[in-house]
Amino acid sequence: MIYNVSYVVLGGEHPGRMQSQDTRPRVGDRIKLGDLQVEIVEVRELMPPMGDFAYLHATCRPVRAEQEAQP
Q1: pTM
Q2: Pick from 19, 20, 6, 18: which is nearest to 57 by CA?
Q3: Which residues make Cβ contacts (< 8 Å) with residue 32, sequence separation at least 6?
Q4: What is the pLDDT of residues 37-63, one digit of tens each?
Q5: What angle do CA 9, 38, 46 make, to 5 degrees?
Q6: Would you tell me how many other CB atoms lie within 10 Å of the CB of residue 20?
Q7: Quick one: pLDDT at residue 21?
Q8: Residues 63-68: contacts with CB within 8 Å, 24+ apart?
Q9: Fewer Cβ atoms within 10 A, N terminus or C terminus of the chain?
Q10: How far apart are CA 38 and CA 63, in angstroms?
Q11: Contact of 60 with 39, CB cutoff 8 Å
Q12: Three-state DSSP class for 67?
C-alpha cells in the first residue's frame, strides 16, 4: 500500500508537506518536516483507499527542544 499523506503543522509557521510513503503514519510518531521535528496528533482518512493507494491527512505539532531529548 502506498500512503499519500498531507501533513499539516498546527500554528501555521510551517507550510506542511504532501508525501507518498509505504508506512501508515500513526498518532505519536515523530518525523522531520524539513528542519522541524513534529509529532503526529491526528490521522484521518481523506477518502477510501483506491487500489494500492490510501489518502490520509495527518495533523502535527512542533516538538520543542526539551521534548526531543526525552525518550
Answers
A1: 0.85
A2: 6
A3: 38
A4: 999 999 999 999 999 999 999 999 999
A5: 50
A6: 9
A7: 97
A8: 63/30, 63/37, 63/38, 63/39, 67/39, 68/37
A9: C
A10: 5
A11: yes
A12: helix
